[in-house]
Amino acid sequence: MQTNILIKSEAEFSKDESATHRYLLKKVWDEEKSIVTIIMLNPRKETDALYLDKSVMLFMNYCISKNFGGFYIVNLFSYRCNSESKLKAIDYDKRYDQQTDKWIRHAVNNSVKLYIGWGSNNNRKKRIKQIQEMLRECNDIDIVKLNTVDDREVHMSRSTLKKTEVVINIDKIL
């Protein structure tokens, strides 16, 4: 058991007064090991470089168990709010901006694997299509969905379910 681990944590936010958008969350504990990326739906208001919500904590634990050295978290929508219903109440064109896509590209191009972690595709097809096109321009990378052992898609936050990794083609994201 390792007892002295230093975790480097970074977060990139929009420059407006209330930091309306979080573009990137990065955590690294072993620079000698591979880094992975997960694209989630949107960041919670309180998650920053220090505060971990359940999904971030569970993804970190998952990465540690898979022997990765760190991760990036980016989001379909970078607007910070605490529920999907609040996100839906925001004008669609304010849920993300050009910086969102810049940071998604950065994360993917600096990772060995990309996890899809935004939950269902319902009401997200327009944005997912944009992500698909963006991924075609990025480095070649394994794209992974997490499934249960009986082959049902599972969200990272469902910690009690055993997960298997299913590598998919870019066209199978949608």
Describe what you observe in this structure:
By secondary structure, this protein is an alpha/beta fold. The protein has a single domain, classed as Rossmann fold (3-Layer(aba) Sandwich), CATH 3.40.50. About 25% of the residues lie in helices and about 25% in strands. The chain is built from 4 helices and 7 strands, in the order βββαβααβαββ. It has a 7-stranded mixed sheet with strand order 1-2-4-3-5-6-7, with helices on both faces. α1 (about 55-65) links the parallel β3 (about 35-40) and β4.
Query: End-to-end distance, in Å?
Result: 41 Å
CATH architecture: 3-Layer(aba) Sandwich
Query: What is the string of helix and strand elements?
Result: EEEHEHHEHEE
What class do helices, strands and sheet pairing give? alpha/beta
Please give the domain count.
1
Taking strands numbered 1, 2, ... along the chain, how are they ordered across the largest sheet? 1-2-4-3-5-6-7
Strand content: 15-25%
Number of strands: 7
List strands and helices in order, with pairings.
Blueprint: E1 8-13, E2 22-28, E3 35-40, H1 54-65, E4 70-75, H2 84-88, H3 98-109, E5 113-117, H4 125-136, E6 142-148, E7 163-168
Parallel strand pairs: 3-4, 3-5, 5-6
Antiparallel strand pairs: 1-2, 2-4, 6-7
Features:
174 residues, alpha/beta, seven-stranded mixed beta sheet
Structure, briefly:
This protein is of the alpha/beta class and 174 residues long. The protein contains four helices and seven strands, in the order E-E-E-H-E-H-H-E-H-E-E. 24% of the residues lie in helices and 25% in strands.
